[in-house]
Amino acid sequence: MELRKDYFADVRKDGLHEIGQPRPRLDSPGHVTGKTAYFADRNFPGMLHLKMVRSPHHHARIRSIDTSEAEKHPGVVRVLTARDVPHNVYTILILIQVGPEDETVLADGKVRWKGEAVVAVLAETERAAQEAAAKVKVDYEVLPAVFDMEGALKPGAPLVNEYHGQNYYHYDSGECRKVRFGDVEAGFARADHILEQSYQSSPIEHAPTETTGCVVTPEGNDRFTCYTNTQAMFFTLDNASIILQMPGSKLHFVGGTVGGGFGGKVDVIVEPIAILSAKLTGRPVSFIYSREEEMQISSPRAAEKVVIKDGVMKDGRIVARKVTGYTDAGAYSRHSPYGAQKGAAHYPGPYTIPNVWIDTYCVYTNRTPSSAMRGFGVTIGDFALEVQMDKLARLIGMDPLEFRFINAYRDGDMKAHRQRTEGAALIECMQEASRAANWPVAEKYMAMSSYRKGA
Amino acid sequence: MAKVPVQFTLNGSEKAEFVESGTTLLHALRDKIGDTSPKGGCHQGTCGACSVIVDGELRLSCLTLAETCSDADIRTTAGLAEGGVLQPLQRAFLDAFATQCGFCTPGMIMAAKVLLDRTPNPSREDVVEALSGNICRCTGYEPIIQAVLTAARANSQNAA
Ligand code: FES
Ligand code: FES
């Protein structure tokens, strides 16, 4: 397939010449010689190992925590609880004014998901830390839990997260993110057919080969160096600074080498507590998730539910689309309010539909907090939308690719969230796809263009 | 806890260490001796990132006790390049885009090396079988399989 530079000729003035040319990755020589330094390859004398005591319950009140036996365990240097964390309640996106702070570094009075961090144990060896963690006694009063989004939104459902006050994220637009464009009911009224379907997905774990973690060393001048595999260096630096109530100038983050992330390493979870541990003990500290923690504790992609109602004409035009999307944030926000919001803008898909109504909810349940993963907020939506498109095409007896040509957005079209389409090239992509897949479409579609002169 | 002496050759040089009884070879290599090329992806024998060669056999160093390796000849990816010159296997991984984050790569290369040492002209099925204990979450397996087959061809050309 040749590179068609004419598609974006007025967008990219530079001479593109890299596509189709092999270029060596800069980091490959390190990888094939075993020399690339991942965070866990840093080893410091006297390094302590951190193990978390985690909640065995999905939802419970903590009546008391007894760390006395753990503290006596040979090799244990320090045991930390919520009281030791300077600013224990935080939320990652506070940096871009997405509040409220809703998550604890170490649980304080309550746990909201099974696996939540409650007590941190620091010991000379991993084994001693593990054994001592098993000796921490936490007295729980188990509370009713809710695991599905519809259940969580029902009146009388157990309240998952008091910092929100209800089981959904409150946007400035209300209980959900809303997009209103045209008159969706009028669109349905004149449609030849209506199709309403719902689509659902489960949480997905990224399962990177390298587990989440960091190694922190005190530099002796009240500064700390944190070697980490975070995918979000500056989010981590700034959130650590807030949680530790420590100026950013005291924190030196070293990273960028990540043994697989896929979005699963953008939360700020291990670094603040490891830096605090290094500060309180004056020793280097390593906090590395076990494989089990990586699979069970690290944020997965959110479970989603998408209900799509479309009004379609016999000639193939979609005239109205109503979407209600639900994103299961689990017990805490992390990146999910943003994911649900992205979905709201995205749900019309790459199609121009004159009447659109979208509501997307970010819902709290007693499940593992979900967060970013490869196109979160959009990927599951695309699965739902494209399956819906195939069903609509079948409903009106039209070729599914031709059906997409009819509805494809083109330059100059107004999208439902009031962004004008630019540089779409969707028509041209589909023309190429039609040729490459040997899936012919009528000549009039092959003659179409994304460009509209004067748009 | 009682310490036990272990002594072995690592990539041709003599190493001696005292380790706690029960220490894994992975831990001994990485944290005592300082060869961090074997990676710990699971510490339970499921990912293959910790693969090393012990007396010519592919071994998961996270499931191998250091104390069972006395007098052994241990090889890791860190010792592969001679005088800074990449081996065909390493070259092939680099050229074929068979490494992305790189975390699985040292283990993959060890598994591939054991295969090529024994079966210089492997079939595609041989390669798939040899790598079946190693997980990669990034590149997809196809470039890795191609890299091993390319390295096998390069080896036999060099030998000819
Ligand atoms: S670390 Fe040894 S198999 Fe995963
Ligand atoms: S390259 Fe990342 S796991 Fe294989």
Automatic annotation (TrEMBL), chain A:
Keywords: Molybdenum, Oxidoreductase. This is Xanthine dehydrogenase family protein molybdopterin-binding subunit. Residues 33-144 form the Aldehyde oxidase/xanthine dehydrogenase a/b hammerhead domain. InterPro entries: Ald_Oxase/Xan_DH_a/b, Ald_Oxase/Xan_DH_a/b_sf, Ald_Oxase/xanthine_DH-like, AldOxase/xan_DH_MoCoBD1, AldOxase/xan_DH_Mopterin-bd_sf. The lineage of its organism: Bacteria, Pseudomonadati, Pseudomonadota, Alphaproteobacteria, Hyphomicrobiales. PANTHER family: ALDEHYDE OXIDASE 1-RELATED, XANTHINE DEHYDROGENASE. It comes from Mesorhizobium hawassense. The keyword ATP-binding does not apply. One of its GO terms (molecular function) is oxidoreductase activity.
From TrEMBL, chain B:
One of its GO terms (molecular function) is oxidoreductase activity. InterPro entries: 2Fe-2S-bd, 2Fe-2S-bd_dom_sf, 2Fe-2S_ferredoxin-like_sf, 2Fe-2S_ferredoxin-type, 2Fe2S_fd_BS, Beta-grasp_dom_sf, Diverse_Oxidoreductases. Keywords: 2Fe-2S, Iron, Iron-sulfur, Metal-binding, Oxidoreductase. It comes from the Bacteria. CDD domains: fer2. Residues 4-80 form the 2Fe-2S ferredoxin-type domain. This is (2Fe-2S)-binding protein. It comes from Mesorhizobium hawassense.
